[in-house]
From TrEMBL:
GO cellular component, one term: lipopolysaccharide receptor complex
Protein name: Toll-like receptor 4
Organism superkingdom: Eukaryota
Membrane topology value: Single-pass membrane protein; Single-pass type I membrane protein
Domain TIR: 11-75
Family per similarity comment: Belongs to the Toll-like receptor family.
Stored InterPro entries: TIR_dom, Toll_tir_struct_dom_sf
Location(s), subcellular: Cell membrane; Membrane
GO MF annotations in UniProt: lipopolysaccharide binding; lipopolysaccharide immune receptor activity
Length: 75
């Protein structure tokens, strides 16, 4: 009976950006510049910058990317 929003959790990032390497320049030069460096300063989770060595890529996507972000942006 109606839609209930899930409880808000503390997240490190506002959005995890999932993209193919083909779009890396666009993400790094346009999205990151426009979102992180704007007045609102929207922190993005970008795998090439925010994932650390020693953990599987899939684990990083789930733990830092999806669970650590409020939203997911697919490019």
């Amino acid at each position: 009976k109606g839609y209930r929003t899930p409880p808000q959790q503390e997240c490190t990032y506002d959005a995890f950006v999932d993209f193919h390497t083909y779009n890396e320049d666009r993400v790094m030069n346009e999205m990151m510049e426009n979102l992180e460096n704007c007045v609102l300063s929207i922190p993005l989770c970008l795998h090439m910058r925010d994932f650390q060595a020693g953990k599987s890529f899939a684990s990083h996507i789930i733990d830092e990317g999806i669970m650590g972000s409020r939203k997911i942006i697919v490019v």
